[in-house]
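We were asked to recover a plausible sequence for a given structure. The inputs and outputs are reproduced exactly as logged, with field labels preserved.

PROBLEM: sequence recovery
POSITIONS: 97
GIVEN STRUCTURE:
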């Protein structure tokens, strides 16, 4: 029974080496997908933080200088762009794995 178990482990190891090769370890897809997830998560966290901070700025601008509210919308658009950029990067990284 031990010999059968060892043979099964050896066949599984050979199958993994055939699938990934020697230059690519078996854990490479895991770390690739974790990188794509990290790109998406941190980019959207940054976009949410930037949107919140610029929203507070828009509120204070509306109180102090109501004529300049339209100029203060630019940081909200830029923060949204950061979120979209993170999504694009995560898709590109995910398709390259």
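RECOVERED SEQUENCE:
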């Amino acid at each position: 029974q031990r010999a059968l178990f060892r043979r099964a482990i050896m066949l599984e190891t050979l199958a993994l080496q055939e699938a990934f090769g020697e230059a690519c370890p078996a854990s490479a897809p895991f770390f690739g997908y974790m990188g794509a997830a990290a790109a998406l998560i941190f980019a959207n966290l940054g976009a949410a933080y930037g949107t919140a901070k610029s929203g507070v700025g828009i509120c204070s601008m509306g109180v102090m200088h109501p004529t300049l509210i339209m100029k203060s919308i630019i940081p909200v658009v830029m923060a949204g762009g950061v979120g979209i950029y993170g999504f694009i990067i995560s898709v590109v990284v995910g398709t390259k794995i």
